[in-house]
Amino acid sequence: MIHRLLVPFVTCCLLLTAVSRASADDPINSALPAAQTWLSTIDAGKYEESYDMAGQGLYQKLPDKKDWVVSLKIVREAWGPIIDRKQAQHLYQPNGISGLNGECMAITFDTTTKKQGDVVEMVIMRLEDGKWRGVGYTVGAKSDPNATPAVPAAVTESSGGTVQNPAKAAYGAH
């Protein structure tokens, strides 16, 4: 009797372990939580820490942490607090995005802020040493509520560390 119960129990445990290990080892499934962690650091006003958490692609475009911090302060002050953020879509690029080599993921979020209302945020993540790291960040007004967010042109250009328009900031790969 115990043997009859033990075999299905052990089999079930082995299957659950295999399924959880496969999802933990899948870098695509870990990109979204990594992006959310990076964004929550930015949301908390820990701009220097978010720069330190970023990947090498961000550093290539922003040689100075001060530029990152100043730009985020300007943008976030113009927005006010984040009211809501939902993932809209993601695009996995196994061979890189616009000048960045390696596995990359562009993740867009429909976000509502207190002062600006609806905006679209995009985070570019790159897999570095087995971890997803933020290497690009773009935000802009959501012009058409029915439009599908796409990789904006700003992701492919660096703003040189200054913000031309406080409602839009773009950093990362070109």
Describe the structure concisely for a colleague.
The chain is of the alpha+beta class.
Describe the model.
- By secondary structure, the protein is an alpha+beta fold.
- The chain has a single domain (2-171), classed as Nuclear Transport Factor 2, Chain: A.
- It has helices at residues 2-25, 27-43, 47-53, 56-61, 65-79; strands at 82-93, 104-113, 117-128, 131-141, 169-171.
- A 5-stranded antiparallel sheet has the order 1-2-3-4-5.
- The protein is globular, with a radius of gyration of 19 Å.
Strands, helices and their partners?
Blueprint: H1 2-25, H2 27-43, H3 47-53, H4 56-61, H5 65-79, E1 82-93, E2 104-113, E3 117-128, E4 131-141, E5 169-171
Antiparallel strand pairs: 1-2, 2-3, 3-4, 4-5
Helix pairs in contact: 2-3, 3-5
What are the key terms here?
alpha+beta, 174 residues, five-stranded antiparallel sheet, 5 helices
Cα-atom radius of gyration: 19 Å
Low-pLDDT residue intervals, each spanning 5 or more residues = 5-24, 148-174
Per CATH, the architecture is Roll
Q: What is the approximate shape?
A: globular
Report the sheet-strand fraction. Answer: 25-35%
**Proportion of helical residues:** 25-40%
Number of helices: 5
Strand order of the largest sheet: 1-2-3-4-5
- Domain count: 1
What is the name of the CATH topology? Nuclear Transport Factor 2, Chain: A
Termini Cα gap: 65 Å
* Secondary structure category: alpha+beta
Write the element-wise H/E pattern from the N-terminal end onward.
Answer: HHHHHEEEEE
Would you state the CATH class? Alpha Beta
Q: State mean pLDDT (0 to 100 scale).
A: 73
